[in-house]
Amino acid sequence: MKAMIFAAGLGTRFKPWTDQHPKALALVNGTPLLQRNIEYLQQYGITDVVVNVHHFADQVIEAVERSKGWGSRITISDERGELLETGGGLLKARSLLESEVPFLTLNVDILTNLNIHALLQFHRHHQPLISFGVTNRLTSRNFLFDSEHRLCGWRNRTTGEERISISKPGLVERAYSCVVVMEPRVFGLIRQQGKFSITDTYLDLAAEHVILGYEHSGDLLVDVGKPESVAVAEAMFS
Asked: pLDDT tens digits, residue range 157-171?
């Protein structure tokens, strides 16, 4: 099984570190975020990993080469020419990810102990196009699910904006964990092009294809999005 770690972002919320470094190399208890997520994947036998790069790309590539991929086979998806966001970055890496089996994606700035084997078992049992981890933590932006955990829409709790793919009563808000299993046929279904968020793809596909949220509330999870979140992460992850 292959995986992709989204590591190309500018990390604007993580200044001043990202004025001189990529967010992927920010340290939590002395270990870079990228290394932590590569080693997280290794716990589940996933050692074939695509990493996309843009912001201070040379530093990321140098770290990967110096560490020999921290024991994994790392392939770089080079976005130095244009930052493509998560959806565009995924599409650019298509040739590196396509195979006969599902693949996994995750964000470099999310640390979690979500059990990937359990997520994969959930995905195999229900056979959706996409399965991704969700929790009931408080966030401003949430995906909306029906009683069968099917993705139906998205809501920004701050602005009140909603995007509904399937209109149903009683939809439940859940926060996105950024650990995702996708069937390779998703590449032939993506209608967006260029630079776009994977959220746009989810909401576009949800009406016609089953996308499920895998509930894992209670697991450890921290978005290392701002410098002050490093202390939170360091308390959770040794």
From this structure: 999 999 999 999 999
Backbone angles phi and psi of 208, in degrees to 5: -110, -15
Contacts of 157 (CB under 8 A, 6+ apart): 139, 140, 141, 142, 173
CA 70, 74, 26, 156 torsion: positive or negative? negative
Other beta carbons less than 10 A from residue 28's beta carbon: 21
Structure tokens at 56: 């201070």
Say which residue the tokens 């640390």 belong to: 111
**pTM summary value:** 0.96
> What are 177-209's pLDDT values in tens digits?
999 999 999 999 999 999 999 999 999 999 999
Could you give the angle at which helices 198-205 and 85-92 cross, rounded to 10 degrees?
80
DSSP string, 165-198: SS--TT-EEEEEEEEEEE-GGGGGT----SS--H
Q: Give, to the nearest 10 degrees, the angle between helix 57-66 and helix 33-42.
A: 50
CB atoms within 10 A of CB 72: 20
